[in-house]
Protein 1
Amino acid sequence: MHHILRFFSNNGPFFTWLVLAIFSIVLLGHSDPYHRSVWLGGANVVSGGVSEMADGVFGYFGLRTANAELMARLATVEEENQHLRRELQQRADVDSVLKNPRSYTYTVAHVVDNSIVRSANYLVINRGENDSIRIGMGVADQNGVVGFVSQVSGDYAQVISVLNPMFQLSVCLKSSQSTGTLVWKGESPLYAHIEDLPRNLAYEIGDTVVTSGFGNAFPRGVPVGRISELVSSDNNNFLSFKVELFTHFDRLNDVYVIQNNEPCPF
């Protein structure tokens, strides 16, 4: 304690000057608009730099997570492709099948705005009419279905999210031809419901739900989610399921807009 007091005693003039300098700077910043703006500008530069560094760090780890999910999805796609190749090799007309043009094309877009906590959620992507985006096109990411294009301008498009009570999509179990309707009932952004599946449908908890291919927006087989539980239904002729969605709506980044090159004539 004695050494501390001696230190402050020997350096008293310096600490006095330091306190007065700090007081003068604060007083000048509050009394003079110009110096206040300089002071705040400098603080914003520092805080902005720190924020940018923090964003870069968190963005890096977020990128690692997204990359891991993408690689997992690509592995699944490759497995499905291998299965399809084996089936095609068993057919006599393999070459003609492989030479047919693709029915769908995909445009990559970046999500610039998104909501998940409202009663009716939408997102905005940075592709529009100038990129051949049209109302009604399906939107998905590497995990599963995201929504439909609902409004379009030159360079942007609004997408009605799966997390919107107005969103409805024809879906089925991956192993079944029976179809139901995917709806969101305003609950958790992690879950939706399937309604109107036939009661005699064979199913198991954990079964994968995919798009049925009915309508113009999505081809058959785009992932949607997995059955998490059976929900009691007032209609004894149909089943209703709670579905855990594959798409992580809280961290949407890049999506695919799906264009049907052979639209339904009806």
Note: The CA atoms of residues 29 and 36 lie 4 Å apart.
Protein 2
Amino acid sequence: MGELSEVAPAARVEHFDLREGAEIEVTTASGDVRLVEGEAGTVRLTTTDADPATRLERVECAYDAATNRLSIDTKVMKGLGTDKGKGLRALKGIIGYARNDVDVVVAVPRGARVRLRTASGDLVAEAALAGLEVASASGDVRLTRVEGPVKVQTASGELDLGHVVGPVTAKLVSGDVRVEGLEGDLSVQSVSGRVTASVGAPGRIDVGNVSGDVTVEVRAGLLVELDVRSVSGQVSSQIALDGAAGEAGERPVTLKVRSVSGDVQVRRA
């Protein structure tokens, strides 16, 4: 365990000797998570609970040096037993407890791989990662740089990616997806939401969207193979839809888009 120090009435700070390539797993209900650069292994927990000391003490932070794995669990349901009452009073207690969940900030080392499980918390990664997996019911995901696989599954939330080197898999019911700089494969399945991707290297792009526009921008010079359709939306492309365009002798960008009612636009960067 790291050494615990109180820096404020509603905060708890711990430090662990995380090494490069650490595995980090965070489980919350509604707390937000930030991944930052800094002294690797520093974990800061904050809450707005009426009894912050008790609430923060319930959070489990455990580091296994043998596997270089850090797990953080805000234990949102811990302590909610029969002493909380029955029926409506118990329900109010659970809702209030979740509303005052714990926010988590972790200073990550180089090459960290992160897994987040949350009901409604947001994730912001300001530090470069080697991989990310997110499962949530509702919550936004914003990343600066990932040099590895990204997997996101959410019912409602926006996905905003900066530079990604590696495959990206995203499944959403409602929420926009934006990939600013993609070098690798991309698979997006969405019911409602805009999908925008800027492609800078060869790879396979597969987008399925029921309702929402799709815009794909491909760097000039890249070979492109297109398979783009929309049932009731408009399709426009600066690249021939019935063939390939680009420099010969290179691996292509294979672009497949299926949309029911959204417009599809393909263009050169």
Note: Helices lie at 52-57, 88-99.
Protein 3
Amino acid sequence: MRKTDFSFLPQNKKIIYEQMARIYREQAPFRNVVWTPFQKKLVNSTIVLISVAGVYLKEDKPFTAEDIPENYEYRIITARTKGDKLAYINIDWEDSEAREDINVVCPIERLVLLQKEGFVGKIFENVYSFCGFNEKRDLLEKSTKRMIRELKKAKVDGAIIIPVSATTGETANIIARMVEESEIPTSVLTLFYEQALKYSLGRCAFINFPFGRPFGKAGHISLHTAILRDLLRILEKMKLVGEIINLNYVWSWGEIPDW
């Protein structure tokens, strides 16, 4: 049986997340898989990036590490924003790679590269960024519904949703189900297989990288774009409803620092 490997985490975190994985496996998954067909080719589509990494413009109102109403509001980043204009708050993940290269957690610049090479037709002008809190579910759902209205008005063809940790992963899964229910196809990248299994997502790719590193190491542009390309392909090509696709990338950089 496939499972998340937490061996590259510090020992205390490894124990915590292995216990969490067992709890997820003991829970019954959502009965219904929410699924909306992707109707176009990527080269003719408008794709939106939804980040759940607490990223925001340095000139904008910042996220904080407090579970307060303001942190359930998404921030909007333009799709052409350079990484040095961005900041973030890491609520439950180690950020040493993100400090060097924010594309490790929010690959805006890498998505632009794929658009320039013609792999995807158009990137929606707004990137939506959530902090990752989800305890106040009504506030998260309210923000997500407002985002969905904007996406529907803009006639976006599909969304890729990228969390970076356990807490942000749960938030991303909630958002993904709501977006898919609104008849916008989604593709989610997860670092936590057991968690994604519970949420019965329509399209999901599992990459067994440490929290805070969904796209690997800082500065590895070819790796970042390869993973992003796979996530987009799943949006277009996946026909088996509810399957979690395993991306066969191997973390080979040893243990990560504690946080």
Note: Residues 11-246 form one domain.
Protein 4
Amino acid sequence: MPAARHCMSLAAVAALTLGLGGAFPGEDAFAENNLSSASKIIAVYRVDLGGFNLGTFELTTVFRGDAYEMRGQGRFSILEGLIYDWKGVTAGSGRVTDNGPEPSMYALNYTVGAKRGERMRMTFGDGGVSQVSIVPPMRTLPRTIPVTKDQLEGVLDPMSGAFLVAKSDNPNGDLRVCYQTVPVFDGWQRFDLVLTPKKSVTVKKNGPTGYAGPAVICRVKFIPIAGHQADNPGIKMMSQSNEIEVWLIPVRGTQMYVPYRIVLPTPVGYGTALVTSIQAGSPRRASID
């Protein structure tokens, strides 16, 4: 179902774009000895829509030198799948440079129920998207704004920056990570996300594996560019909304900020993703506690 696919994509994008703000550290900021402080991060998010729990999304990020690999998987269902059952797996890889993440591949496979589904794979090269494969072939809907080659230069996929580029030397809630405009392509749609700071808050622990400590809240403005129908009511709602926001929390022992909470309006109520646990580990143990 395109709606579920795009909600998942937008949630991932919102997460990554909050991490793209602020100035990047110095010339050796992404050296292997810096990344080794968080060689693996596993984050689990609870996803709700209109007050109902849909399921969970788990994201694992692994660093090997300046290379990274990411894998996310989720299942969203209503009445244990009797009414609605969506399963998806997403993956990405690339390397981290002085200027941020440089993706090489992004893929999303999902099924709805027992029969319907899509498989999308996107590769990058020469600073932009080089190829997109969608199975079964995508049927272009009437009045869809076409995506041009120029619009795919310098874009990020929804996963490549989620846990890599939210960086600050200040672990106490640095609002500078909210200053950024990020170009994104998810394989279907091209859009920008414009981030601005809202406020700093202190989060209280919401469970035995939850987080307590500083967080920054960023407003996110969704600007559709291509790959969508101009009269799509969901796209119109998202682009006109001033209520999209992402909360970021620091991973202690690193310079990284990671998504804690994501809020966005949808045609059927507010969608939220809230972290329920984060594990960050290496030979030199990192923590969000």
Note: The longest strand covers residues 84-97.
